[in-house]
Amino acid sequence: MSNLYRLDAGIVDLARQFGAEPAPELPVPSPVQPGKQGLIVRGTSRRRSMHVLQWGFPRPGRNVEPSPVNLVADLTNPMWDGMAPEPRYRCLIPVSALGQPDGPKGWMTRTWFSIPEWPVFALAGFCRSVPEWGAVYAAMTGESNALVKPLNDRSPIILAPDEYDLWLTASIRDVIGFQFRPPFPADRMAMARTDELWVPLSERSNRPRRKQEG
After folding, report:
1. Tens digits of per-residue pLDDT, 1-31?
2. 209: left (phi over 0), alpha (psi -120 to 50) or beta
3. Which domain covers residue 158, as residue numbers?
4. pTM for this structure?
5. pLDDT of residue 97
6. 212 part of a folded domain
7. Measured between alpha carbons, how far is 157 from 12 in angstroms, rounded to an integer?
8. What's the half-sphere exposure (Cβ side, CA atoms, 13 Å) at 138?
9. Of 8, 44, 111, 201, which is most buried with the most CB atoms under 10 A?
10. Structural domain tally of the chain?
């Protein structure tokens, strides 16, 4: 599943594209990783708004520190089954490119998948305020297309512009239909491999080390 994406656009252009004018005074975080801030769009075509929330819901569990769950793979999971049927918890997640890890373990690099005809596209998302972290969001996933599948068999659900309102107002039957429909066509996507490490060395050095057992 994708745990990284970019958004290469300014807030004014995004507000225009997603019908959220006048543009709010918000930052446009990029790149975005689980547990970090990202931009989402809520509301119908007549009244849409933009917000910066944290990407990932807290994972439930006793006596453990919450970790972000940023992707929705199973709508029947208790984490989602009370939220998925409710349109008020839907959102659009603007994206320019989805990242996937590529290469040998320990030295994986970032490979980006974009849609040339749509410099910015939208993912199907859910958002809600939770006691642990406040306002958060997650992206729904489905089967990957043939271009992405060699790196990952699951991908976020990509929405066409004329599907935005349907997603934001859909019944649970429609939501299920979005998740299990055929993946976005591979021949409409572009892949760009890079030399950029999936986990930068600077981030690795800052991670706490496990205590060695004697």
Report:
1. 579 999 999 999 999 999 998 999 999 999 9
2. beta
3. 5-206
4. 0.92
5. 98
6. no
7. 25
8. 23
9. 111
10. 1
